[in-house]
UniProtKB/TrEMBL annotation:
Signal sequence coordinates: 1-19
Alphabetized UniProt keyword annotations: Leucine-rich repeat, Repeat, Signal
Domain Disease resistance R13L4/SHOC-2-like LRR: 96-228
Transmembrane segments: none
Protein name stated in the entry: Leucine-rich repeat-containing N-terminal plant-type domain-containing protein
Organism name: Citrullus colocynthis (colocynth)
PANTHER family, alphabetized: DNA DAMAGE-REPAIR/TOLERATION PROTEIN DRT100 (PTHR48060), LEUCINE-RICH REPEAT (LRR) FAMILY PROTEIN (PTHR48060:SF3)
Gene3D superfamilies, sorted: Ribonuclease Inhibitor
Keyword Signal: yes
Domain Leucine-rich repeat-containing N-terminal plant-type: 22-61
Length: 363
C-alpha cells in the first residue's frame, strides 16, 4: 500500500508539471483551429491536458506553467521534417485567441508559405513579448499602429509577406529593439524622422518595399547599427553627410532608389565599412579621393549613377577591394595601375565617358 501511495504521488506530480492553465490550453486549441497543416502532422501532439509537455513547438515556464514560447518554423532541421523529406506548408490565419497567452515571450510562426490574414492587433498587449517572427508567409494588412507598446521586443521579423501601410510612428518607442527586418513587403510612406531613437538596433533591413522620402538624419546617431539596407525602394534626397561616421556600420545598401547629390566623403574613408552599394541612383559629382590603407571593401558598387571625373588614385592605397563596379557613369581618365585594378574585369568600368587603361583600351 505504501508503494502504491508513493507511485500515485509521483504520478500526480509529473501530471501537474506537464499540465498548463486551462485558459492557455483553450487559447492554443483556438490558435490551432485557425490553421491547417496537411503534410507533417505537427499538431497531432496537441492533445490532452499536458500542453507544457509534448505539444510540438510549445514551452512553458516551469514554475507558473504558463505558455511562454510558441516556435513553429516551416523550414526546420527537426526530425519530423527530415523524416518527411520536405519543408512545411500551412494555411489559415493567426487567431486573435493567441493574445490570451499573457506570458508569451517568443512567437515564431515562420516559413509556412500559405498563412494569410492580418497580424492580430491584440498582439501589442502581450507585454512580455521579446521575439515576433512571422517571416515567409502571406500575411497582409498593416503593422499594428501601437506596435511601440511592445517595449520588451528585441526582434521584429516580418520578411517576405504582403504587409502594406506605413512603418508605425510608435515603433521608435521599442527601446530594446535590436533586429528589424521588414524586407520584401509592400510597405509605403516615409521612414519615421526620429528613427534614430532605436539606439539598440544593430540591423535595419527595409529593402524591396515602396518606401519614399529621404533617409532620416537621425539614423547617423545609431551607434550600434551595423547593417542598414534600404535598397529597392523609392527613397530620394541626399545621403546624410555624417552617415560614414557611424562607429560600427559595416554594410550599407542604398541601391535602386532615387537618391541624388554627392557621395559623402565619410562613406569612403570609413575603414570599417565593408559593403557599400550605392548603385542605380542619381548620384553626381566625383568619387571622393579619400581611400586609405584601412579601407577594406568586400564590395563597392557605384554603378548606374551620374558620377564624373577620374577614378581616385587613393583607391590604390586601399587594403583590399574585392568586387568593384564603377560602370555606367561619366568617369574619365586613366584607370590607376596596380591593386586592386590588376584583378578586375572590363565590366567594372564599361559605359563611362572616356576611361582608358587596363583592362579597357590603351590610353
Amino acid at each position: 500500500m505504501l508503494l502504491l501511495r508513493i507511485l500515485l504521488v509521483v504520478f500526480f506530480i509529473f501530471a501537474a508539471v506537464d499540465a498548463c492553465s486551462p485558459s492557455d490550453r483553450a487559447a492554443l486549441l483556438s490558435f490551432k483551429a485557425a490553421l491547417k497543416e496537411p503534410y507533417l502532422g505537427i499538431f497531432n501532439s496537441w492533445t490532452g491536458d499536458s500542453c507544457c509537455g509534448g505539444w510540438y513547438g510549445v514551452r512553458c515556464d516551469p514554475e507558473t506553467l504558463k505558455v511562454t514560447d510558441i516556435s513553429l518554423r516551416g523550414e526546420s532541421e527537426d526530425p519530423i521534417f527530415e523524416k518527411a523529406g520536405r519543408t512545411g506548408y500551412m494555411t489559415g490565419s493567426i487567431s486573435p485567441e493567441i493574445c490570451k497567452l499573457d506570458r508569451l515571450t517568443i512567437l515564431v510562426i515562420a516559413d509556412w508559405k500559405g498563412i494569410s490574414g492580418e497580424i492580430p492587433k491584440c498582439l501589442t498587449k502581450l507585454s512580455h513579448l521579446r521575439v515576433l517572427d512571422l517571416v515567409g508567409n502571406k500575411i497582409s494588412g498593416e503593422i499594428p499602429s501601437d506596435i511601440g507598446n511592445l517595449n520588451r521586443l528585441t526582434v521584429l521579423n516580418l520578411v517576405e509577406n504582403a504587409i502594406s501601410g506605413t512603418i508605425p510612428a510608435s515603433i521608435v518607442n521599442i527601446g530594446g529593439l535590436m533586429h528589424l527586418d521588414l524586407r520584401n513587403n509592400q510597405i509605403s510612406g516615409e521612414i519615421p524622422s526620429n528613427f534614430g531613437k532605436l539606439e539598440m538596433l544593430s540591423r535595419a533591413l527595409l529593402s524591396r518595399n515602396k518606401l519614399s522620402g529621404s533617409i532620416p538624419t537621425s539614423v547617423t546617431k545609431m551607434y550600434r547599427l551595423a547593417d542598414l539596407d534600404l535598397s529597392m525602394n523609392g527613397i530620394s534626397g541626399l545621403i546624410p553627410a555624417n552617415i560614414g561616421n557611424m562607429p560600427v556600420l559595416s554594410t550599407l545598401n542604398l541601391d535602386s532608389n532615387r537618391i541624388s547629390g554627392e557621395i559623402p566623403p565619410t562613406l569612403i574613408s570609413n575603414g570599417g565599412l565593408g559593403i557599400l552599394n550605392l548603385s542605380r541612383n542619381g548620384l553626381e559629382g566625383q568619387i571622393p579621393d579619400v581611400f586609405c590603407p584601412d579601407s577594406y571593401f568586400m564590395a563597392l558598387d557605384l554603378s548606374f549613377n551620374a558620377l564624373k571625373g577620374p577614378i581616385p588614385n587613393s583607391l590604390s592605397s586601399a587594403k583590399f577591394v574585392g568586387h568593384l563596379d564603377l560602370s555606367h557613369n561619366h568617369l574619365c581618365g586613366s584607370i590607376p595601375i596596380g591593386s586592386p585594378f590588376d584583378h578586375l574585369e572590363a565590366s567594372s568600368f564599361t559605359n563611362n565617358d572616356c576611361l582608358c587603361g587596363n583592362p579597357l583600351r590603351t590610353c
